[in-house]
Amino acid sequence: MSACMKVTHSISLIMFLLTFSFTEDKVLRGFEKKQDIMQKILEEDREKQRKSAEVQRPAEKKKDDANIQPQNEADQMKKSEKLFPNSVLFKEWGANLSEDDQREAQSLYEKYGYNVYLSDRLPLDRPLPDTRDPRAEPLLTQIKADRTVVVSPVFDRVNFDDLKVITYHPNAHAFDWALWCMYESFTPEYYKLNDGSLPGKSPSVMGIMVADRKFLGEIGVLDEGMKVYGGENVELGIRVWTCGGSVEVVPCSKIAHIERAHKPYMPDLGPAMKRNALRVAEIWMDEYKHNVNLAWNIPFENHGIDIGDISERKKLRERLNCKPFKWYLDNVYPKLDPWDDLLAYGGMKSLDADMCIDQGAVPGHTPIAYNCYYYGPQFTYYRGTGELYIGGIKSHKYNDNRCLADIGTEETEPGLYNCKEAMQKGMGIYWDFTQGEELKNRQTKRCLEIINKKLIIQECTGQRWTIQHIIKPF
Q1: pLDDT category, 81, cuts 50, 70, 90?
Q2: Terminal Cα-to-Cα distance of the chain (whole angstroms)
Q3: How many CB atoms lie within 10 A of CB 279?
Q4: For the chain, which domains are there?
Q5: CA gap 246, 147 in Å, rounded
Q6: Which of 148, 219, 228, 292 supports an S-S bond with 245, CB 3.0-4.6 Å?
Q7: Is 45 in a helix, a strand, or coil?
């Protein structure tokens, strides 16, 4: 096996264009039109900045020449003073910029999410590695051997502020149940081969990929019902794997990708991401689709979010005779916790005290009683085992959740510990609960109750609890 070929800088453009060449012509034309619009807006911004600077210069020249003195130390300090001390753009960059340049850089950053000011000033004659087409060979070699494989390079990160390249190691492209993407190690079998140049299997892709055009067309190209941002990469990964293909990350191919600090077209990606995730779940996840609702803490039914028409995509799945999602979990992504024994979730409220369980201070191990607001720190999950998680639930089997625990002393506050740690210390982490009734620890036979607005564990007095959403009768 030959050594990996380093593919950087302009190869990202090659991969980008290859990716979009797989879609229909109208998609490509639409993309080019958007690029032209963005370029026009950027040029207009620069022209406004130039005219503004020209207006300011004559005004400065009107100052009395008699008052002009050689620039002293105070002037130097004023020139280098940061006008935007709270801006992440200037956290590691821009200390020597003039005030006018700081204003221009900040204005462009706010609009585009990365350092356009610096990007425009990179010298065109700077040395660059050879990035001609043969550098794509590691990706194309995999497709030549198997037309059903979709391949992705390793992404190095280009900082949005100083544009420095941060090297990333090869990893699988994974996701959680909310369908946010993430990096994850390859399978143990991959590392046993002891060859870091080999492609590694990946549950998903992160948006930059190369595929056989005909194969991608056969399995439905991209879901045009997805909106704005998020989830389309996970949808594609699930579809490729379950409909006859596979996904690989190729370490011998690298690109550099600017990760913008914010998306200029949508400051809050949450609503679009949630909507797209629900669409993916409804089409592809079968009996596991409600795990997406769990991850976003929304009801299973009547959630009020329009996911668009999915009839054609469901017909596509049936026509391609794609495998069930359970096959995908068992064979492609066994690291994902199926959550198949969850009984209930949401805020857990004492009907007698009219308050909810809250995870309390983090870091810390003491849950508290607090007025109900039904958000992150109050998210509660009750499993068939009797475990009760407070403050969230982990999507992956390799991560431990935080269990509500009776730590075993006399009348006391409850504990909140990683479940494995609590078991090792002999704490009671299993609870018996029926909706509208008491919450009793199986090991100590004591109950969780709220006394004088304080969460305690004591002999049961009949305090009643209710949890927001029931998944299965219990």
Answers
A1: confident
A2: 57
A3: 26
A4: 129-331 (3.90.550.10), 342-470 (2.80.10.50)
A5: 10
A6: 148
A7: helix
